[in-house]
Design brief:
The complex is a heterodimer of chains A (387) and B (350). With 387 residues, chain A is an alpha+beta fold. Chain A has three domains: 7-88, no CATH class; 124-231, Butyryl-CoA Dehydrogenase, subunit A, domain 2 (Beta Barrel); 249-381, Butyryl-CoA Dehydrogenase, subunit A, domain 3, CATH 1.20.140.10. Chain A has helices spanning 7-23, 35-50, 69-81, 90-103, 106-117, 232-244, 251-267, 269-272, 276-304, 312-335, 348-362, 370-381, and strands at 123-126, 142-146, 149-156, 167-173, 184-190, 196-201, 210-221, 225-226. Chain A is globular, with a radius of gyration of 21 Å. In chain B, helix 7 runs parallel beside helix 9. Classes of the chains: A alpha+beta (387), B alpha+beta (350). At the A-B interface, helix 1, helix 3, helix 7, helix 9 and helix 10 of A face helix 7, helix 8, helix 9 and helix 11 of B.
Chain lengths: 387, 350
Amino acid sequence: MRLHFTEAQRAFRAEVRAWLEANVPAEPLEDFDTEAGFTQHRLWERTLSDGGWGMVTWPKAYGGRGCDLIEWLIFEEEYWRAGAPARVNQNGLFLLGPTLMEYGTEEQKRRFLPAMASGEEVWAQGWSEPGAGSDMAAIRCTAVRDGDHYVINGQKTWSTRARWADWLFGLFRSDPASSRHRGLTFLLVPLRSPGVTVRPIRQLNGLPGFAEIFFDDVRVPVDNRLADEGAGWQVAMATAGFERGLMLRSPARFQQTARRLVQLYNERRAEADMDPAIRDAVVRAWMGAEAYTLSTYATASRLIKGGHIGAEASLTKVFWSELDQRMHETAMAILGAEAELLPDGGGDESRSWLEGFLFAQAGPIYAGTNEIQRNIIAERLLGMPRA
Amino acid sequence: MDFTFSDDQLEFTDTVAKFLRKEVTPTLIRSLWETEDGRSPELAAKLAELGLPALSVPEALGGLGLGDVDWLPLAREFGYSALPDALLDTAWLAAGALAEDTGNPVCAELLTAIAAGEARIAVGHPANPLVEDAHRADRLLLLHDDGLHLVPASEVRLEARGSLDPSRRLFAVGWQPRAETRLTADPRVAARLFDRGALAVAAQLVGLSQRILDLSTQYTGERQQFGKAIGTFQAVKHRLADVAVLVEFAKPVLERAAYALANGDPLAPVFVSHARVAAGDAAAAAARNGIQVHGAIGYTWELDLQIFMKRIWALDGAWGPRRFHKARVSDFVVDRAGGLDPGDLFAAAS
């Protein structure tokens, strides 16, 4: 055990910090779920990529920087500290990217990863269907083999970023006679293909962060398949592991929220202390963010030494999502009557908290609801019997 | 940056864990409950054979020259087995204090005896009104206003006090500080002793929580109601999953605290208190949910679950109750955490 940053790691932090200070836009970008904001965010991804920061953990050959996971955590800490724009291509970078790294062919990696790192191709997810939410193995959307193509028919929903994204990755039933988690195949689908209809769905904040997608005889080359036909469930579980675990919700984000919450509490201490539970919640927020960060450094250290993440990702997902919800509830409690105000209502200070508060409500639902995660923890980690 | 235990640390912990699981059975624990002094000299001798008392003693004095990080996983195992012996007080807390550079010549002699398994030291601190295992101690390490004192057993009056946990043998200690008994006036030694005590409690609480998870998983996998194992029901699963989350996220907090303590990090007291709160929260949930998923059998004297629940409830007040530690974290967070930089996570680096 050696809980020190090395000289090289400190130098790396300084380099990231200096680059971000010189390059992060002074004015916040529009939300990436607006048309203008999406374009701004795509340009920002290009700027990041030109600086060599598109996806620091990937090999240079795929548009990365060849960093290890500790450097990734340092990069993220600095990224959030700098208030840099949200990553519009997070579905690609943090979920599909690592999946491609594990299951993709060399050709697929070279075809997709650099364009992902540069924001040239932005990715949406295609998991849920109207009849397959928590029960993802109930997927009905079909991909029928026809020569060197698959022909896709059916519907996906709750597809994040699909409104303006270029590509979609998802799970399709390639064996019509199959059921549950067998006979599923993981495909990469261009959203501009003939037969694809994208219908935006407005989220709680009023913006079209979701879409539902209709596939009507959409033809996708067999080369766009990840891993073997019928092996899609296994690939999807790996992707879900990245979503729940190390990559998507790096601890820096929660550390930053905890620091802001402490500041907010200190600014409004006289009102906040009317309820002693608020101070307690602020302290718990800090402890939770620290615990999550320490746990992630420990996981990164294990992975660097050749370890693996399995079902433990479910512990992580429950922890960060419920921490995020509690932190934002606490901020709302401190803000009191101001908490509800939108920017045009004069709520400059509450604005960022309100956005975060709404988004925090999604945390325990996406990437597999926390009820599903608790089942996984009980069955796969504790060894309790399946129903 | 390497946030893992070494192979040596893991192997030694594994050896100790296997020993404890074989030797420290609920049957042994219950039989010791019925004895006058509650302790087994045979068990103490076997623990000494494993080298445990020598762990914190410097190599020059016949010890292993290890420290807080090495103790952490071992103390978790002591908790897991609900070890009926305050070995940690002698071997981690007292030896840790004696190994500090106090300049007092008695330390070397005593450390050599500790390493050989020939000296037992009970530790008293104002945070704990009573002293555990004082009846078995050769000397007592006691904190007074003017510093830490090392007092021969012949100079103290003991009065036994009952604990909820029949394995804990607690004593009110009457004594008079003398100039000759004073080990050191350095308040930093006493402060580190306190932090080590709190961390030792935290580590045992995490181990105890894991034991309750294991017992509960086993029981709910066997007990049938409505024609199936009750562990198949989500209401039961989710209670235990909640405990698993708390335990998992307490562990690295304890590890940082041990590392900070071992390396003289100025933030060690805050990190230890954080660890103590996290472990206390996890353990309280483990006991609460553990008894709940057992149902009525969990409320009996007969079931071994009580051994581990009662140790949790008893330890949760030791070396500063959670409210004390929460307050210590709270003061730090409110005054300083808002201005922390992400690079400060491991403050020892600076």
